[in-house]
Amino acid sequence: MIETTSALQKKNSHFEAKVNLQISAGRFTVRTISTPDELKQAYALRYQVFQVEMIGSDFLVGEDHDEFDQISDHLAIYDSKSNQMIATCRLNCSRFSNKFYSEQEFNCATFLELPDTKLEIGRVCVHRDFRKGIIIMLLWRALADYMAKTEARYLFGCGSVATLDPQQAFILYRYLEEEGKLRPSYGISPTEQFYSKPFASLLLDEKRPLQADERLLAETLLPSLCRSYFDIGCFTPGSPAFDQDFKCIDFLTILDVKQLSPQIRRKMMGA
Question: How many Å separate Cα 17 from the centre of its chain?
């Protein structure tokens, strides 16, 4: 949704954080958004990344929001040098919600019915001038803090890759499989709207290992944010969803804190 309606403005006027946290690192501070004005800043940043950069919208100023924003918390990273919001993401916790964005793209009811607390991360975006390792690491520190505060066992969400080419999607799928990041589980599959028959046909027909140039292509296609998911211990349970609106494919990624290695658990969770 792009335009702001009076109904949305009324909802925004009552917005407040469900979980409060704040972490600083040098000139950057990450905290949960706690005011309607901060939420509007996040919508504007998301619009610039998702609507202008990814889709090529003709309107250079706007807001990106949907029905999940009001039931979620939002992290924001601020640059003290410019007093600018330079990154944001949405956190939808099963302690507060039983509706999730990922359900639109994936059949994941079996996973969502698991008894432990689950935290969905989404709408992750970083201003183009700040897409570097320190920002991603700061986001991970804040995520770990949020998961600890909510006692979440699972972190999940859609990891986006800027392609709709079935062949490229197939190469990425095989690459993740060969890297041990594909773990078919929970019966998860794309919903009908996000299912790709050409991709499914490639899975049936192509059984060979990837060639060196194909692996290089996969590594080039995989964004640094998605790579950080897999590096920290996330896996994908099945085929990607093809999102025609945002011109990308989405891999559902899942992190089970109880299956983290002791080293990563200490680094991420402080335990």
Answer: 19
Residue type (1 letter), 3: E
Q: Are strands 118-126 and 154-161 parallel, antiparallel or unpaired?
A: parallel
Bridge pairing between strands 154-161 and 84-93? unpaired
Closest of 127, 157, 159, 153 to residue 225, by C-alpha: 159
Cα–Cα nearest to 17, from 86, 96, 131, 100: 96
**Element spanning 124, H or E:** strand 118-126
**Tokens matching residue 249:** 């494919």
Token pair for residue 5? 């309606």
Cα–Cα distances (Å) from 83 to 14, 46, 61, 141, in that order, read 24, 17, 19, 21
CA distance 228 to 124: 13
Q: What is the pLDDT of residue 3?
A: 40
Which one-letter amino acid corresponds to residue 144? A
Which structure tokens are listed for 227? 């790579």
DSSP code per residue over 86-101: EEEEEEEETTT-S--T
Cβ atoms within 10 Å of 251's Cβ, excluding its own: 28
pLDDT digits (tens, 9 = 90+) for 60-107: 888 999 999 999 999 999 999 998 999 999 999 999 999 999 999 999
